[in-house]
């Protein structure tokens, strides 16, 4: 509880995949969850799952490629909860797997808008209030390719590397006032968004020490740990949840 109300979390991109698993995992620990996405039907389904897990749920729709909608999301999330205690910057625009020379300006702008600008807007809108209260958590969801060169996804990798840089800067800025900022870096994780690539992903993941792809719940478990008091001394970390991909 915070000031007599349940602790509140905004999980962006939480109508599917890692975001959905995170929203439900945090509901089990008593959070009031702001579910975010662009699809009302999927969002309402996740809200039902959150409530079944014992949490309160509010669905807010917004296109994070639009800066004004992103700012409005932060304001609405604060208004409906009384204050956001935890922000999980999970929403992700993967774009198209293609040679760098084939990347359009529109694709470039949208990927940076969703993957970098939106977390920047949301964090700078919400973290100052956390700092005033003397506590709060921001978790940025990156990807293993932010640290490993992979042909065909140069732009996406660059956006996630930028997000990891923001983690380090924000923990320097907000950490001394009680706001913990960390990154989770998934590797090959099966989600509905990549269901059409299951065989390719299994083949790629078979080369890691884990020898299999990860599940969204396995990433959500790490996010839930970072949000919890058990991680009270974890500041500015990037935690790989990649089956050992980056280790070998």
From TrEMBL:
<comment type="similarity">
    <text>Belongs to the short-chain dehydrogenases/reductases (SDR) family.</text>
</comment>
<dbReference type="InterPro" id="IPR002347">
    <property type="entry name" value="SDR_fam"/>
</dbReference>
<dbReference type="InterPro" id="IPR036291">
    <property type="entry name" value="NAD(P)-bd_dom_sf"/>
</dbReference>
<protein>
    <submittedName>
        <fullName>SDR family oxidoreductase</fullName>
    </submittedName>
</protein>
<dbReference type="GO" id="GO:0016491">
    <property type="term" value="F:oxidoreductase activity"/>
</dbReference>
<keyword id="KW-0560">Oxidoreductase</keyword>
<dbReference type="Pfam" id="PF13561">
    <property type="entry name" value="adh_short_C2"/>
</dbReference>
């Amino acid at each position: 509880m915070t000031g007599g109300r349940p602790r509140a979390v905004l999980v962006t991109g939480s109508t599917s995949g890692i975001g959905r698993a995170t929203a439900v995992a945090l509901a089990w620990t008593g959070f009031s969850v702001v579910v975010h996405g662009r699809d009302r039907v999927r969002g309402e389904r996740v809200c039902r799952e959150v409530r079944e897990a014992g949490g309160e749920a509010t669905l807010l729709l917004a296109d994070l490629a639009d800066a004004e909608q992103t700012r409005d999301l932060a304001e609405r999330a604060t208004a409906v909860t009384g204050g956001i205690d935890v922000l999980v910057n999970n929403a992700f625009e993967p774009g198209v797997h293609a040679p760098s020379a084939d990347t359009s300006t529109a694709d470039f702008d949208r990927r940076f808008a969703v993957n970098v600008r939106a977390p920047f807007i949301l964090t700078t809108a919400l973290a100052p209030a956390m700092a005033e209260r003397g506590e709060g958590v921001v978790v940025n969801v990156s990807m293993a390719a932010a640290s490993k060169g992979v042909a065909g996804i140069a732009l996406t990798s660059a956006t996630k590397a930028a997000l990891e840089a923001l983690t380090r800067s924000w923990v320097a800025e907000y950490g001394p006032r009680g706001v913990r900022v960390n990154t989770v870096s998934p590797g090959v994780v099966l989600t509905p968004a990549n269901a059409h690539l299951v065989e390719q992903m299994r083949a790629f993941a078979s080369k890691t020490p884990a020898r299999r792809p990860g599940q969204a719940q396995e990433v959500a478990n790490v996010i839930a740990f970072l949000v919890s008091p058990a991680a009270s001394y974890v500041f500015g970390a990037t935690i790989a949840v990649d089956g050992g991909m980056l280790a070998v």
